[in-house]
Amino acid sequence: MSAKSDDTMMLTTPFHSRVKEACGLNCWGNWMGYTTPNAYEDVELEYFAVRSTTGVFDLTPMNKYRVSGPDAEAYLNRLVTRDVSKIRVGRVGYTVWCDDAGQVMDDGTIFHLAENDYRICAYARAIDWFNWAALGFDVSIEDETAEVAALAVQGPTSCATLLAMGLEGLDQLKPFGLTEFEFEGETLMVSRTGFTGDLGYELWIAPHKAEALWDRLFEAGRPFIIRPFGTDALEMARIEAGFLQAGVDFMPAEEAVRNGRSRSPFELGLGWLVDLDKPVFNGRRALLREQAEGSRYRFAILDVDGNKPAQHSFILKGGKQVGTVTSAAWCPTAKTNVAFAQIEMPHGAVGEELVAEIYYQRELHWTRVLAPCKVIESPVFNPGRRRATPPAGF
Amino acid sequence: MTDNYDAVMVGAGHNGLICATYLAKAGKKVLVLEANATPGGCAATREFAPGYSVSSCAQWLNQLHPAISRDLALEQHGLQWAAQNLPSISLDEQGKHLSLLGNKVEGANVSAEDRAAFVAFHAKTEKYARLLVKAFEARAPKLVESNLTDRLTLIKLGLGLKMMGRDDMSDLMRIILINMYDVMEESFDSAQLKGLLSLDSLLGSRMGPRTPNTVFGYLYRRVGETLGNNGQALVKGGMGALGEAMAASARAAGVEIRLQSPVASIDVEADRAVGVTLAGGEQITAPLVVSNADPVTTFQHLVGFARMETGMARRVSHIRCKSGTAKLHLALSGLPQFTGLDDAQHGARLLVAPDMNYIERAYNAVKYDEYSSAPALDISIPTLHDATLAPAGGHVLSAIVQFAPYAPEGGWEAHRETFMQLVIERIAAFAPGIREQIISSQLLTPADLESDYRMSGGHWHHGELSLDQIMMMRPFPGATQYGTAFDGLYLCGAGAHPGGGVMGLAGRNAAREIIKRGAAA
Ligand SMILES: Cc1cc2nc3c(=O)[nH]c(=O)nc-3n(C[C@H](O)[C@H](O)[C@H](O)COP(=O)(O)OP(=O)(O)OC[C@H]3O[C@@H](n4cnc5c(N)ncnc54)[C@H](O)[C@@H]3O)c2cc1C
């Protein structure tokens, strides 16, 4: 039996024809129901493209919701933990949103497109919750996941590539800024955002222009050593940059079935996103209580001795288990063995020395190492070029 | 502007007045704000035709807690009885009526077996109702975090269950989850008896005899009797006189009552209630705001969804409070003659509920937002006991009508007249000459009840009494024990535990909780 792609259950993005052609490994994963390459050719080469030249990632499957109407700002302010009025038109803000129990449902970015017009990008499907959250507000919420094709263009030569593609003036765009260009009669929105912790941009366009955009981008990027990258390389980059991944580093509150498995923003090291001075937002009461009574867990970035990634490790203190690792990777650029861990309070303060109980196997032979590790203050990769405006030329 | 009130009460329904009075007796300075021109809420008397007045919403008094009555000294403040201990009579077109009072059933169609079976059934359900009374006289325990008081309440309930004995306990657990139809079928033969008890189990609800929760509905109704109120009572001057007596008692305790003062909003700062704003724009501040309005009115319309967290707004929007009950009022030139009733019996509670399938069919319609073509009725002719309600020789007939939808297709104005004639037709089947006696008539649909008494959905209990909306889930998880997610904002009406009916426990329990929490409130 032959299955045409129309008949398959997995969706493809508007870039699929190009992605497929580039995906020499033919190694695919499932991202929110979309066929997504884990790697195109070689994870290491892809990772180094992101860190040394330009990497391109198809992020169309990211859930995108358009929020517009007279109460759009008030709506978002009730929905998310940070003060949305501080995200001006033309700016993007990272945030989390919680349920009434102050447990994180998801993290994402809010794009302030125009007066009373926003886009939220989210890891999890959120239309149901976003609609419930509209009770009491004059606002319209639309799922535009399939209506907007998106590429992340990340790395030190990304700006040069995009300038070469004709996006004049893009070098003036500040981090978390967004701007628009004309692209073959369509609007191309570009934001200076990304999930790699480096200089980088995200491109947003109508699906019927997706292939043309991909072609023009790769043509312009050839001299700047452009290369597509898959989710495996992204995973290394984001851990190095200290970014949490929903579903990996925390359970979205609505997906957590068991009591106590979800986390508050404070417990994820995201307290800086919580503005308790706002009069009302989902989770506020519970977060005030948590602030008064103390959190259960602390998010810690660990610098682990050795080069064995501490994947799924227990974290010990004096032989007693005090935490678990949610994400771990050997970070090539920072040359550090990094792990994200959930540590039971009061442990996990910066500077504390702990032990990672790492299990790994070579040829079916399992070995356990007790690797000393230390809680560090900030992510291991955070280059100045990430923030420089204009970015250095190439 | 600052006012020196300790508490502002939204609404002067009986629960609001009771709560306010207890608060005042505990030393608080309380202001009650009522939208309507008279106190009492659904305990109201209104003139619906020149010279003819009627209990325009609730008509029978049988659930009022005697201790509250005593504490408020209602008789000293003007409460008079027009009649007490009235039986319920199930009408029969041929005049073979069935009469019920306490554990006694009488009537042409009742066998000796049924009579005996009813005595046993009555005794058994009495025990169950006593258990409910225990649960109703205290705040409901919390759903998750249980503290000592709540645990004690649970223990008492558990103990009460155990004390009933094993057979009774397992029987209660069994029947509470099934429905009145099945329980009736296994208990009695008489169709009329089964119909009458079924109607009692679902009056004011949107349920038929075969709907789960109806057994709870029946036991809920039996609470009145368990509290010592035998049969039905009528208040002299109509239910509004009860509202007036409560208002007088409240004033005597120091409560200030302002009528015709609709509250436009309950004002909150972050998660604390700070006062109210009247429709006229006046702002009144107070550290405590207590709402006698139903939960949907309170949270959706007075606080506003935008001011609360999403999960709570979602819960409020899930409250089932659409009524299936209407009210018919007839001004009559003389006493209607019901076939087969003697004069005294005309003054009893008259029911049109000939059998369970009759009620079930009546209920079918409302499932589809249609009105019953043959509705079940709970009729009172108060003028037989109380001459103040009509001109000399005239009479008033008042009927609770099951079922009418909250929002029929095309809107009520398209159906009002047809439905009213249909209800009158029903009554005429038992009182053939009544049409000629009608001077004036009035039908109050659920939508009318909603606007007349400012209760969302127009529901008898301010929200369906079903297992998912009672006790620690009333009105919804997170707003139990009269407190809410807003510090300083409490509920005290029928929408709170234990529920509606002119009983007063919601008001008294709320006052106790507020007093107990003291400064922490
Ligand atoms: C058709 C019908 C028949 C019934 N028959 C009986 C019966 O025979 N026997 C019986 O025991 N029970 C009966 N009931 C039930 C009973 O009437 C109610 O459960 C009970 O009266 C509710 O009392 P309450 O004090 O909690 O609320 P309510 O009596 O509803 O009082 C609430 C008060 O708040 C006021 N309010 C609301 N919003 C505002 C605002 N924004 N500003 C100011 N004031 C406001 C309202 O005007 C009202 O006065 C009947 C109910 C219905 C609908």
Give a quick rundown of the structure.
The complex is a heterodimer of chains A (394) and B (521). Chain A has helices at 16-22, 43-52, 72-79, 127-132, 158-164, 210-221, 231-241, 284-293, and strands spanning 27-31, 34-39, 54-58, 63-68, 92-98, 104-114, 117-122, 140-143, 149-154, 178-183, 186-191, 200-205, 226-228, 297-304, 314-317, 320-331, 336-344, 353-362, 365-376.
What does this protein look like?
The complex is a heterodimer of chains A (394) and B (521). Chain A is globular. Chain A has helices spanning 16-22, 43-52, 72-79, 127-132, 158-164, 210-221, 231-241, 284-293; strands at 27-31, 34-39, 54-58, 63-68, 92-98, 104-114, 117-122, 140-143, 149-154, 178-183, 186-191, 200-205, 226-228, 297-304, 314-317, 320-331, 336-344, 353-362, 365-376. In chain A, the strands form four sheets. A six-stranded mixed beta sheet of chain A has the order 10-11-12-9-3-13. Chain A has 394 residues and is α+β, with helices and mostly antiparallel strands. Among the domains of chain A are: 3-60 and 148-229, Probable tRNA modification gtpase trme, domain 1 (Gyrase A, domain 2); 296-376, Aminomethyltransferase beta-barrel domains (Elongation Factor Tu (Ef-tu), domain 3), CATH 2.40.30. Chain B is an alpha/beta fold and 521 residues long. Chain B folds into three domains: 7-37 and 61-82 and 238-320 and 457-520, 3-Layer(bba) Sandwich (FAD/NAD(P)-binding domain), CATH 3.50.50; 98-231, no CATH class; 321-453, Guanine Nucleotide Dissociation Inhibitor, domain 2. Chain B has helices at residues 14-25, 66-71, 112-136, 148-163, 166-177, 180-187, 191-202, 214-226, 239-252, 295-304, 310-318, 356-367, 416-430, 434-437, 446-453, 505-517, and strands spanning 7-10, 30-33, 45-49, 52-55, 81-86, 88-90, 98-101, 104-107, 232-235, 256-258, 263-269, 272-278, 283-285, 288-291, 325-332, 349-352, 376-380, 395-402, 438-444, 489-491. Chain B has an eight-stranded mixed beta sheet with strand order 8-7-6-16-17-18-15-19, sandwiched between helices. In chain B, strands 10-2-1-14-20 form a five-stranded parallel beta sheet, with helices on one face. In chain B, strands 11-12-13 form a three-stranded antiparallel beta sheet. In chain B, β6 (88-90) and β7 (98-101) form a beta hairpin. Chain B starts with 6 loop residues before the first strand and ends with a helix. The chains are: A alpha+beta (394), B alpha/beta (521). Chain A binds chain B through residues 71, 74, 78-79, 99-101, 129, 132-133, 135-137, 279-285, and chain B through 269-271, 300, 304-314, 317, 478, 485. Residues 10-16, 33-36, 41-43, 57-60, 63, 204, 262-263, 292-293, 297, 302, 325, 327, 400, 449, 453-455, 460-461, 493-494, 500-502, 506 of chain B line the site of flavin-adenine dinucleotide.
